Q: What sequence folds into this?
């Protein structure tokens, strides 16, 4: 009998348990239909991808509607089975989560060189469909279709990327510029191919259980995070879109990625509270930010729906990283510390494709709205200084873009300041 609970611990997947499990297709199909916890569904979907049985296609296809790790794992599993038709149906006819997961699966399928000859034409059509959706006020995912075309090495990609940039103001320009450069340099998106053809334990590294450290890390002062006056903070991987991302040091704190343009975390559990509890003494445990209250706040009302969703997902990750790297709650940071968290700690903790979204101009607008909310509600110890921290990040990224010589790059200007 297969017990999904034996495959996970504390909301994360036990790598050894999944690697050693060998259920038959019928048993696994039953488990997929009866499991409810997101981490159980994700672990079972990974097992299904390893088994690669056609009998598992129906329950896996149903999981494409799920947000987070279950949907992503199901998409990966369907790619291992070679289910191009089911994945294509999801991106063409599904709701937002199904479309996102469908693109993940098709990207993995293309990375494995298992796509049909017609997938490129289908993705070219999907770019047009996503542009039309964005123009009508919906959420366009044109960069996802472009990523598949980049993996396939489609010659039409540069023109399609330009169309997406001109038509969808919420598109991920960082990712599109990275794709354009990757194809120009090597003909295909080798980074994505490498990432999605890695062993499952690497693909889902953000979902694998890691035993807690024996002791919390030594306290770090903001002076260790920010360089001396006049020195330039460490550039995040997005400083030059398309450039290879620097490998994070071994001791860098790891966190679950927000919804990228490609990957998601498990539903309802980012692990931030557990990490904060382990790192702070009982009398010093902070009250977590009320993200639901933020989403209905006047500050959040100024943000587009995709940006609110991004901030709501990456916010708990920032809380976790603040406690682990700076030994202080996010709400207790100074403006300089918040800037260091965004510029130096966050790029080391997220995969490159997630950093591109997390440090985009739209994301910074979201962080600025969050900082204003924390200041207005009195939650932020430093008050408006958190807002100044976001402004500092804008200035630094703008300077990096100018120094890199990239033309037509992201606009990091402050929406609170009048246009000159």
A:
């Amino acid at each position: 009998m297969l017990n999904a609970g034996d495959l996970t611990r504390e909301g994360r997947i036990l790598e050894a348990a999944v690697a050693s499990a060998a259920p038959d297709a019928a048993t696994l199909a039953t488990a997929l239909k009866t499991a409810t916890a997101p981490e159980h569904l994700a672990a079972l979907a990974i097992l299904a991808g390893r088994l690669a049985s056609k009998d598992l296609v129906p329950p896996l296809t149903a999981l494409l509607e799920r947000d987070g790790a279950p949907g992503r794992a199901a998409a990966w599993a369907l790619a291992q089975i070679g289910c191009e038709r089911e994945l294509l149906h999801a991106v063409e006819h599904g709701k937002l989560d199904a479309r996102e997961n469908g693109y993940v699966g098709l990207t993995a399928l293309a990375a494995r060189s298992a796509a049909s000859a017609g997938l490129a034409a289908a993705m070219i059509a999907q770019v047009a469909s996503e542009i039309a959706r964005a123009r009508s006020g919906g959420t366009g995912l044109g960069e996802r279709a472009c990523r598949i075309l980049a993996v396939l090495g489609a010659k039409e990609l540069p023109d399609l990327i330009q169309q997406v940039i001109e038509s969808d103001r919420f598109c991920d320009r960082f990712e599109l510029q990275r794709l354009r450069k990757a194809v120009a340099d090597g003909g295909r998106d080798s980074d994505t191919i490498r990432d999605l053809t890695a062993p499952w334990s690497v693909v889902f590294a953000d979902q694998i259980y890691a035993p807690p450290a024996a002791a919390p890390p030594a306290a770090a002062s903001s002076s260790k995070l920010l360089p001396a006056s006049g020195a330039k903070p460490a550039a995040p991987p997005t400083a030059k879109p398309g450039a290879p991302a620097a490998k994070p040091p071994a001791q860098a704190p790891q966190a679950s990625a927000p919804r990228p343009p490609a990957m998601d975390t498990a539903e309802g559990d980012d692990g931030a509270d557990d990490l904060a509890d382990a790192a702070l003494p009982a009398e010093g445990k902070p009250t977590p930010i009320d993200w639901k209250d933020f989403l209905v706040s006047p500050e959040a009302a100024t943000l587009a729906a995709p940006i609110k969703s991004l901030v709501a997902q990456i916010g708990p990750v920032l809380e976790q990283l603040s406690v682990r790297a700076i030994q202080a709650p996010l709400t207790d940071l100074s403006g300089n510390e918040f800037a260091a968290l965004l510029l130096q700690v966050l790029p080391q903790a997220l995969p490159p494709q997630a950093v591109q979204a997390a440090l985009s101009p739209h994301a910074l607008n979201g962080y600025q709205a969050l900082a204003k909310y924390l200041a207005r509600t009195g939650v932020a110890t430093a008050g408006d200084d958190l807002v100044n921290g976001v402004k500092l990040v804008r200035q630094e990224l703008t300077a990096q873009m100018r120094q890199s010589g990239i033309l037509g790059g992201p606009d990091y200007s402050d929406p609170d300041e009048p246009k000159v």
